[in-house]
Amino acid sequence: MPLEPAVAADLAARIRSAAATHRQIRSLVHDHPEMDMDDAYAVQHAWAEARLAEGGRLVGYKVGLTTPSVQRACAITEPAYGHLFADMVFPQGGTFPMRPFFEPRVETELAFVMKTDLPGPDCTAEIAMAAVGHIVPAIEIVDMRFLLKDEESGAARGTLDAVADNTSSALIVLGDEEFAPGAVDRRWSSAILHRNGVAETSGVAGVVLGDPAQSLAWLANALHRRGQRLMAGQVVMSGSFITPFPAAGGDRFLADFGPLGTLAVAFR
Questions:
Q1: What pTM does this model have?
Q2: Over the stretch 168-178, which tens digit does the pLDDT of each residue have?
Q3: In order of start, what are the domains of the chain with their CATH numbers?
């Protein structure tokens, strides 16, 4: 039986309170073991609706859980999405205080900026790319408002908690240079992530559903199922092609996307 709207709103309020008070909370599934993926999205959408009601401006979406290894680990067969608001978007080169975060991790991605609306339900990668105005290299900082494991109850967080928690999104950093869709080899785009001058990890965008354009098409169809659509001007983070890398105070990161340029972020 689906979560009642009032229950979803209450659970969304718990997540918002965790962020506001900087206190992680235990798994929602522990208290609501009947929760399924639709319920997790109901909580996420209640969270987004609360942000909109306060004047927040929706500027796009993120797609996560896009690689085969992550999907196997999470026991899922498709990605997940989250909402992006204007106050979550930053230019490259910034330094972020650690205080708002709990367990920040750095990801590298390709971001698509839409030139036209992109409706579902029958969107394909080809249709999706025809709606893209430009591509930019991007970094996402992911975080979790849930405890890894609650000592009192023993409840461990899981995939449903992550989806309810806006698919773990904290903020995104967009590159300065815009690239025409035809100028980017999406599958072979890559990045090397340096921390404090040391190359720590790397990846190739082809691990994102075989082509990040598939991620965009999936999102258009997933939003259609929930009565939404991608709009012109919105940005879509297509999914990380590196393993999320943990950040600590004092760390300085440089993501080298080769011909697409570099992005820098730091933490203090």
A1: 0.96
A2: 999 999 999 99
A3: 57-267 (3.90.850.10)
